């Protein structure tokens, strides 16, 4: 019985020493964290690009792009789709993405296929339109899309 009680005391002291040691180590570790970890909640940078598959179909045509957070416009740009460069268009929106908040990128190309009005977002059969979603960003986003006509969506309301 005496051996068991001594064993229990020694075990309790070892457990206490281990707890003090570990809690001290955790406390000291907080001072060596990389300062970049302070930005884990964002905002995060967004770079959005069209790959070379847009060159043949839309090279030389104007493009409009908008970044939305919960349906609210937060960044917008316009440019021209390149017929020779890859990526054929790139937009660096900057640090606009917030952690855990849905973001969308709407974009349309003013192609005026079979009519339409220059500089106006016409129906998707005339001006191609797309939407891409970033539902839960947790880091900087560098996103490149490929040309996919079946994935067109009506996004003209964002621009008109």
- What's the assembly state of these chains? single chain
By DSSP, the count of extended strands is 7
Which CATH architecture of the largest domain is right? Sandwich
Beta-strand portion reads 25-35%
Q: Report strand order across the widest sheet.
A: 3-2-5-6
The third-level CATH topology of the largest domain is Immunoglobulin-like
Total number of distinct structural domains: 2
Brief write-up:
The protein is of the alpha+beta class and 160 residues long.
Descriptive report:
The chain has 160 residues and is α+β, with helices and mostly antiparallel strands. The chain folds into two domains: 2-32; 43-159, Immunoglobulins (Immunoglobulin-like). The protein is 22% helix and 32% strand. A hairpin with a 2-residue loop joins strand 2 (62-69) and strand 3 (72-80).
Topology (elements, then pairings):
Elements: H1 2-29, E1 44-50, H2 55-58, E2 62-69, E3 72-80, E4 89-97, E5 103-109, E6 128-134, E7 141-145, H3 156-159
Parallel strand pairs: 1-7
Antiparallel strand pairs: 1-4, 2-3, 2-5, 5-6
Sum up the structure in keywords.
single chain, 160 residues, alpha+beta, Immunoglobulin-like, 2 domains, 4-stranded antiparallel sheet, 3 helices, 7 strands
